[in-house]
Design brief:
2 domains, alpha/beta, 13% strand, 8 helices, Rossmann fold
Length: 197
C-alpha cells in the first residue's frame, strides 16, 4: 500500500506549538488575544488579525521547522510500515515550500534536514503546490492508497475517495465519515492500518 503522510500536525504536534508560541508572541508584543475554540485557522483560535498571525509565523516558522521534535514513535512506526512492505510518501503543503525562490528552496532544505535528523524514512518527499491545504493533485498523481492527515479540509476532501487516518486535534473534531479513522498516537495509527488491511 502507498501511505501518504503529512508533516505538520501529524509528524509534529503543531497544535501545541502554536498554543505555546502564539500566546508568548502576543504577550511580548502587547497583542490582545483570547484562546477560543480551536480552529485550523489560528487567527480565529486566538482572535487576532491575519496580519498578526503572519507576523508570528515570520518570526517563528524557521524555529518550528528546525527544532520541533517529531511525535513519539513516528519514526519507529514508519520503519515498521516499510518492513510490512508499504511505500511511504511524505506530502507537505507547509508554508513557503510551494514557492520557487530562495525562501522556498531554504524551507524545502529545512524539511529534508528535519526528516533526516528525526530518522523519518520515506520513498518519496512531495512538496504540494497547494497553499496549506488541498493535496488532491499529489495524491492522485502518486496513486496514494491511504493518507494520514490532520487538516480538516484535507481529511474531509480526501476521504471522499480514499481512507484517511485523521490525527486527532481539537481543530478536526468535526471530521467524521465512513472513510475517516481517528487516531491518537503513532502506535494507534499502526494498529488501525493493520486492521484496515
Amino acid at each position: 500500500m502507498r501511505i501518504g503522510i503529512d508533516i505538520d500536525g501529524v509528524l509534529t504536534n503543531i497544535e501545541q506549538f502554536v498554543i505555546d508560541y502564539i500566546s508568548k508572541y502576543c504577550v511580548e508584543n502587547n497583542i490582545e488575544y483570547r484562546i477560543g475554540t480551536s480552529n485550523y485557522d489560528y487567527c480565529k483560535t486566538f482572535h487576532i488579525s491575519k496580519e498578526e498571525e503572519m507576523n508570528f509565523w515570520k518570526q517563528y516558522l524557521e524555529d518550528y521547522a528546525m527544532q520541533e521534535n517529531a511525535r513519539p514513535f513516528a519514526a519507529e512506526v514508519i520503519k515498521k510500515f516499510k518492513e510490512d512492505g508499504h511505500d511511504i510518501y511524505i506530502i507537505t503543503a507547509r508554508w513557503l515550500t510551494n514557492r520557487e525562490d530562495d525562501k522556498g528552496n531554504k524551507m524545502r532544505e529545512i524539511v529534508k534536514s528535519w526528516l533526516s535528523k528525526n530518522e523519518i524514512i520515506y520513498d518519496k518527499l512531495i512538496f504540494s503546490k497547494a497553499v496549506r491545504e488541498n493535496k488532491w493533485q499529489e495524491m492522485i498523481e502518486n496513486k496514494i492508497d491511504l493518507m494520514i492527515e490532520d487538516s480538516p479540509n484535507n481529511v474531509n476532501e480526501l476521504s471522499k475517495i480514499i481512507p484517511v487516518i485523521c490525527y486527532n486535534a481539537e481543530y478536526n473534531k468535526n471530521c467524521i465519515g465512513n472513510k475517516i479513522t481517528r487516531c491518537y498516537s503513532w502506535y494507534d495509527i499502526y494498529r488501525k492500518i493493520k486492521d484496515l488491511n
